[in-house]
Amino acid sequence: MNISTIALTLCIAAVAPSHAACWEEAGARYNIDPLLLQAIAHVESGMNVAAYNTNNDGSHDVGLMQINKLHFPRLAAFGITEKRLMTEPCTSVMVGAWILAEFVGRVGYNWTAVGAYNAGIGANRTVARRRYIKKVAGQYRVLKNRPIRIGAAKFTPIPQLSTSAR
């Protein structure tokens, strides 16, 4: 078991039931702007906790962050099931942040990592990545340009992502 999987397990166990705190908790844990995570959720599921999508390749995505079934075997080792991803928003947010952090580790904290969250990093997926980046970047700008209040706290964005997309 590697450090990132241990961290994921501990994070999911520690996240408070308050959905609002989930964005900040996941962002802090993985050093990702919480507003970026929200922008991804807006694009992926329209903020629908129980979202289910069947893909053209026969796979499917579930929950707020639309976690693809290819991740289920790794997640099962930590007791994270498809049902939990569709009924526990904080679990979905934390897993989505974990997956995005893996791409950030591979390609850097940039728009390519965001595009890879949805389309992967293969050379044949460049067009799909760019299309997804455009959607998320648009939603991210909307969220950054309005005050987001969770309880009494405001999100402090992590520094702006680089706009380079491979």
Apparent shape:
globular
Largest sheet, in brief, is: 3 strands, antiparallel
Number of separate strands: 5
Strand order within the widest sheet?
A: 1-2-3
CATH fold naming? Lysozyme
- Describe the oligomeric state of these chains in a short phrase: single chain
**Tally of helical segments:** 8
Topology as a string of helices (H) and strands (E): HHHEEEHHHHHEE
Could you report the average pLDDT, rounded to the nearest whole number?
A: 85
Strand content range: 5-15%
Poorly predicted segments:
5-17, 150-159
Provide the structure class: mainly alpha
CATH architecture: Orthogonal Bundle
Just give the CATH class: Mainly Alpha
Through-space gap between termini: 31 Å
How many independent structural domains?
Answer: 1
**Rg to the nearest angstrom?**
15 Å
Q: Overview of this structure, please?
A:
The chain is mostly helical. The protein has a single domain (3-154), classed as Lysozyme. 57% of the residues lie in helices and 7% in strands. The protein has helices spanning 3-14, 19-30, 34-45, 72-76, 82-87, 89-107, 111-119, 126-144, and strands at residues 52-54, 60-62, 67-68, 149-150, 153-154. A 3-stranded antiparallel β-sheet has the order 1-2-3. Helix 2 (19-30) runs parallel beside helix 6 (89-107) and helix 6 packs across helix 7 (111-119). The longest helix is centred in the middle third of the chain and has 19 residues, at 89-107. It is globular, with a radius of gyration of 15 Å. Mean pLDDT is 85; it is low at 5-17 and 150-159. Residues 22-134 form the Transglycosylase SLT domain. Residues 1-20 form the signal peptide. This is Soluble lytic murein transglycosylase-like protein.
